[in-house]
């Protein structure tokens, strides 16, 4: 399917195109060639093709969605997708004035991108690409077909584009967090003595799916173990459970961690979780628009350093949204490999952060809280703000 340009593109653009134009100008980019699922989803207003949601591979190649967006020229925007996406367009038309629902692999998608860039007079422009999400065969074709073009890494520009969430995005992140929290608390209450890790993970998957979330993973520990992989290990009386789950709602991530106990927590466990909570609260106290991201990190780390549990406890915070680690990037290589480029920048309203404190206690096990907060002018709003103490197992 090849749909010709329409007349009402500007009025239907599902993102702040003036802000995107400004970010492109700052990055020296004339036209974007977005090829990652998360950035094409953002630029298409939340759309992701369900057929390739779980796996990209098909035949000898893979699915490669492409959004072409010209700075200051939304009337020249195009979406290049799979042939079956013509049906998606019939039901819910894409905003891009041009649609090529014609591809089955990377090379036909790249060829159509080159043709469109040439047609709109951008064959020798500064083209922003996503190196980590542009297959080598597609890159080689574009490079050979457009020898006079300058290919620029647009990764940072696109991350900055997604850093400030809209109200609609915040609502999806809130719902995702609420669904994940409800599912984890229900799973803890359901699990009993003798329930295995594999059974607990499967139950969580059901709980999230039944609530309308898309389950992605569960990192689970029982007892004194620090091993979060699935196994036949069974929950025993008096043991702790750490349940950390990631799932999404309409593509937006919920990522939280809560604690369970089979029985009643003793004084030591109450004290240990309180130490984790103290570090979390220290971080929250510095979250507000205008605060340097690095100041929030250093304050929480300072509180942790004074704690008796510091030798086996870690603090971490990161941005989240369509993916689990995105702008603002607050810490360098801790533990995910990227630069903390936002540490010296102020937090901004409607940024969303995951804040987590993890204790690997030598005898009592894995004790952790992970929370999601949205930055406001006055401070923050927490999503899924429940079950942050010891939750009893075997009570459902």
TrEMBL record:
<dbReference type="InterPro" id="IPR050659">
    <property type="entry name" value="Peptidase_M24B"/>
</dbReference>
<feature type="domain" description="Peptidase M24">
    <location>
        <begin position="171"/>
        <end position="377"/>
    </location>
</feature>
<keyword id="KW-0031">Aminopeptidase</keyword>
<dbReference type="InterPro" id="IPR000587">
    <property type="entry name" value="Creatinase_N"/>
</dbReference>
<feature type="domain" description="Creatinase N-terminal">
    <location>
        <begin position="18"/>
        <end position="164"/>
    </location>
</feature>
<dbReference type="InterPro" id="IPR029149">
    <property type="entry name" value="Creatin/AminoP/Spt16_N"/>
</dbReference>
<dbReference type="InterPro" id="IPR036005">
    <property type="entry name" value="Creatinase/aminopeptidase-like"/>
</dbReference>
<keyword id="KW-0645">Protease</keyword>
<dbReference type="InterPro" id="IPR000994">
    <property type="entry name" value="Pept_M24"/>
</dbReference>
<dbReference type="Pfam" id="PF01321">
    <property type="entry name" value="Creatinase_N"/>
</dbReference>
<dbReference type="Pfam" id="PF00557">
    <property type="entry name" value="Peptidase_M24"/>
</dbReference>
<keyword id="KW-0378">Hydrolase</keyword>
<protein>
    <submittedName>
        <fullName>Xaa-Pro aminopeptidase</fullName>
    </submittedName>
</protein>
<dbReference type="GO" id="GO:0004177">
    <property type="term" value="F:aminopeptidase activity"/>
</dbReference>
